Model the fold of this input.
Amino acid sequence: MRFKGKIIAGLLVTILGGVLYAAGQEQAKGPETTSVSTTGSDSTVGSKPSHSQALQGAADRRVEGEKRFHANCGRCHMAPHKFPPRMMATIERHMRVRAMITAEDMQLILGYMTE
Amino acid sequence: MVGRDSVSTVLNVIRGRLSAAASVCLSLFPSLPLRNALLAALLISLSAPYLLAQQEDDTPKAIPIIIGGAGFITTFDGGQPHLGPLIAPVVLVPLGDRWLIESRATFESDLSQPPGSSSFHGKVLKEVDYLQLDFIANPYLTVTVGRFLTPFGIFNERLYPIWIRNLQTDPLILPIGIGPSNASTGAMVRGGFKATSTFDINYALYFSTLSTVSPLDSSRFAGGRVGIFIPESRIEIGGSFQHLLQDDRSNSFGFHGAWQPSAVPLDLRGEYQRSSEGSGYWIESAYRLSQAPFWQNAMRRTQLVARLQQFYIGKIPSDSLPPADTRQFEFGVNYYFRDGLRAVSSYGREFSQLENKNIWTIGLTYRFAIPLGHGDEN
Done:
């Protein structure tokens, strides 16, 4: 019983910590700014980029998405071909839970797989 | 009118399933303080979405799908032939932006020749491997309730499906730490997040209650798994721990590792596990011959696999583990016809204190994906 209590307390601390940390991260990031790491350092794409910046950002995201697709999906199985976008969204959610892939990686992989 | 009825029916089904999930959750925790603690945790998790940004509008809306694997594997185990047809569909039903119902059922048979008979006989075995409700509370935390694959080591949860595994025989240590039917019944929190710019951390903490309803049986235990993944070098290492809350109340632990170097098409994986029922390890390498300078069309589809494993019996005997110290070496060749369809074959030699034997496998595996809606529209 004592051990079970400790486990529940541990779960609670984990959940609370995760929620608070995530909320803090989201507030610090701001609602309309996304950041994509391309070459090891973070490059921030603003909320109103110019046309050329937007194209460059999309190209960077595609390259990074492909890279993370092979790194993450290849951990367990051969990288599959692309599925239709709405199927891919479901598979992405399933794999996020199953393989515990980070939210940032999943966004980039989903973008690459549905473009 | 028909559309409105359909929506009403779906909403009623969803409402019923959520209510059933809550009832199961409460029944798992009969103690009032524990129940309150769990409810508080769930309440915090449920409120999390309102603190966080909503999903981007251009993200495709998820639809229910069926994915899974099917195959037909013929095994010669010590000279005795076994025919093994199998199909394991996974049903995925997304609800809103953050919920997911997922379930896998397995239908399989082990057809063998009874003494004196030239024909093969066997029964179809049916099992619900998992049926779980996931709630993605935030980028760092997912809450799961229901029946889920026990996250002890990496094979049971990630490498088990027939279309994923490189060799069709199970590792000898697979039964360690995963419960009597490879699954747990209870609750779990898990997630993965970027700890620094160089590595990610993933974790899972779970509690399983005792269930004696076969084939949905599970043991009463609690445990966790944590791993570190370095994307740049594609290295993953981690460890698992579990405390049994029944019988001998023993501890189990294990370590796992995987490496896929970028320079060569090589997969290296391995696990070590230890419990009161036994201990052992397996290490596997798989090499795709895509860099061979000849017959490139065939070579890039060919994969060579080798696995070495050992098992040592523990203090407590187990029906699902080998009855004696065992060593096994296996070598396999897989050929990928196209994405999801492949031919598999392997030869293995097992050395045990009871007997030495050869194990041959040959077969086909297939991965399928079926949308239950229009997959192309946003």
